[in-house]
Amino acid sequence: MAESEELPDAPDAARAVFTGEAWPRARAFAEMLAGPGVVRGLLGPREVPRIWDRHLLNCAVVAEAVPEDARLVDIGSGAGLPGIVLAIVRPDVTVTLLEPLLRRTTFLEECVEGLKLDNVEVVRGRAEELAGKRDFDVASARAVAPLDRLLAWSLPLLREGGQLLAMKGERAAEELDAAAQQLQAYGVHSAELVTVGRGKVDPPATLVRVVAGRSPARSAQGARRRRKR
């Protein structure tokens, strides 16, 4: 591996974010991403020098927005960002890594086993296949799809009052505005931009937080079922 692609030492901020048992697990996960993760094409080699700042720390601060003891589904988990990172920093949270591609789920399973994360399960599949079978308190997603598509995948997985935490960059406000009609159609309680990681990452991370409500479609279905009774 070329010098420019070597995994750097963890920055001081990492020790403040990954505390206790999370610290050795974070270091081990960084090595997994820089090694097998790159070899298998889950992470580009040019991302290796930025694993701590751009990936691990940026994902870890999302935990600020996750309620205690939540059941979380990480949609399109890929290399485990942010799902595995959240599981490392928040052992109280039960994490389901949802990923359709076999080579990625294989990597995720190896990471979960190697890191001894007993609060994580890996599920191979798509969000549409899990809808109606499971529900969650939180859905997380990073670099998966535009917000309009992400809403269609995530909201059917959330209980009423559950929340989507979508990691978005500079276009977060634009995507939120563009999805206004769809947000209304789903009957969400609220949708807003949230900043996390102030003083820990620079720049802080921007999330789109959508709190799920009872969609008009579901409410109508429920009313029809009650009338039939």
From TrEMBL:
InterPro entries: rRNA_ssu_MeTfrase_G, SAM-dependent_MTases_sf
GO MF: methyltransferase activity
Compartment(s) of residence: Cytoplasm
GO biological process: methylation
Residues annotated for S-adenosyl-L-methionine binding in this entry: G76, L81, A127, E128, R142
EC identifiers of the protein: 2.1.1.-
One Pfam entry name: GidB
Residues in the signal sequence: none
Alphabetical list of SUPFAM superfamilies matching this protein: S-adenosyl-L-methionine-dependent methyltransferases (SSF53335)
Keywords annotated in UniProt: Cytoplasm, Methyltransferase, rRNA processing, S-adenosyl-L-methionine, Transferase
Its biological purpose: Specifically methylates the N7 position of a guanine in 16S rRNA.
Xref: PANTHER family: S-ADENOSYL-L-METHIONINE-DEPENDENT METHYLTRANSFERASES SUPERFAMILY PROTEIN (PTHR31760:SF0)
Family from the record: Belongs to the methyltransferase superfamily. RNA methyltransferase RsmG family.
Name under which the protein is recorded: Ribosomal RNA small subunit methyltransferase G
Source organism per UniProt: Sphaerisporangium rhizosphaerae
